[in-house]
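Q: May I have one protein plus its fold?
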Amino acid sequence: MDINMIKEYLPFLIPVLIIQLGLMLAALYHVLTHKNYRFGNRILWVVIVVVIEFVGPIAYFAIGRGEE
């Protein structure tokens, strides 16, 4: 991979990485501070949020988060 190619995509990649990191941190905070989940348990959701990067936090907020 050429360094010029990386520089070309950098303006697009930085915001995507910031959004992904923010989603992951928000989902992890919610998983660790709440006890109710619609599906699964705390350990399952931590693994999903961390390992499945961009889709994991979205999946947690869409289907995993339980009632407050």
Observations:
- The two ends are 47 Å apart (CA to CA).
- The longest helix spans residues 3-33.
- The chain has three helices and no strands.
